[in-house]
Amino acid sequence: VIANSKDVERSLVQGNEAWFPKEKVTIIYNGIDTSKPIDRTTKMYQKQSNEIVIGNAGRLTEQKGQKYLVELGKLLAAEGVNFKILIAGEGELRESLTNQIKIAGLEDRIKLIGHMEDMSPFYNSLDVFVFTSLWEGMANTLVEVLWHGIPTIAWDVSSNAEVIEDGVSGWLVKLGDVEEMKNKLTRINGEKIIQAKEDSIKMVTAIFSKEKLDLELFKLLD
Known about the structure:
By secondary structure, the protein is α/β, with parallel strands linked by helices. Helix content is 39%, strand content 15%. The protein has 9 helices and 8 strands. It has a 6-stranded parallel sheet, sandwiched between helices. The chain has a two-stranded parallel sheet with strand order 1-2. Helix 3 (94-103) links the parallel strand 4 (83-88) and strand 5. The radius of gyration is 18 Å and the shape is globular.
């Protein structure tokens, strides 16, 4: 049996040892093609000089937790932080999120930009990616974001800790602790962003390279 994360392995094995004994489960992550050049320069948004640009991407659903971005925006605004939150994606909660943003008075600070066919210009516009999903089997979006060299803050849930090395390629926060998420954001300086960018690209190359993972799969099936 192949699982694409340790978290999925735990879900398979727990209470199902007769069907899925742990020693019979092999973990092979979903890979990303690191040999394919990506655009790291084109941007869809030009930041102001002292603005921090925060991004999120995913379906606008309860699972993806974008409501926490509105709460985060309120905390940042209360501290006088100059920020912009860009949310890429479409979904059933678009109207609800639009209303939450309006009620919070953050229409100029939080933008729902809809579906994007090419995500590179979106990622390249960001200083930090905030991943608010409440659960994931394997967070493919996280791997893609880190391959673009974008430092990431995420809830410490599901397989996120398998992708983000806390304090190195990004930062993990207890689920729902928006105050601590705000604190992490406001402590990030340019030097930390540059270092996290370098570390995240190295990590994806070492662990999530599709070529490397394909070899592991071929060996398993041989």
